[in-house]
């Protein structure tokens, strides 16, 4: 008998076969039998403006003046930011900038140092 695998996304044991796909009723994830390693490759790769891959803890530099939403201040071009944290969102970098505090930045406006 074919053993139906647990869901690769949420590890639910209540998966079922639907044609050529496996389906998880808990998280609605669908995958094929050959794509069981899909979760590892699904992780988003964040790149800076030059195409360098960013990772948690990197130091970056802002490449253009950025207006701070809800304020009249500007993060100046050349501002160095240490210890970034990558997140899954539109603004994919969380960091603390001296003089501004916690901020979220888009990776297209920074370069890796």
UniProtKB/TrEMBL annotation:
Domain Protein YjdM C-terminal intervals: 46-113
Domain of life (superkingdom): Bacteria
Gene3D superfamilies: 2.20.25.10, SH3 Domains
Domain (Protein YjdM N-terminal): residue spans on this chain: 4-32
InterPro entries, A to Z: YjdM, YjdM_C, YjdM_N
NCBIfam families per record: phnA
Family: Belongs to the YjdM family.
Protein name listed in UniProt: Zinc ribbon domain-containing protein YjdM
Organism this protein belongs to: Alkalicoccobacillus plakortidis
């Amino acid at each position: 008998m074919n053993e139906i695998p647990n869901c690769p996304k949420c590890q639910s044991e209540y998966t079922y076969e639907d044609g050529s796909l496996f389906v998880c009723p808990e998280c609605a994830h669908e995958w094929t039998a050959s794509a069981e390693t899909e979760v590892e490759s699904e992780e988003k790769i964040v790149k800076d403006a030059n195409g360098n891959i960013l990772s948690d803890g990197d130091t970056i530099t802002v490449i253009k003046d950025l207006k701070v939403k809800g304020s009249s201040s500007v993060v100046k071009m050349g501002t160095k930011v240490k210890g970034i944290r990558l997140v899954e969102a539109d603004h994919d970098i969380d960091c603390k900038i001296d003089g501004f505090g916690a901020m979220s930045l888009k990776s297209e406006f920074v370069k890796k140092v």
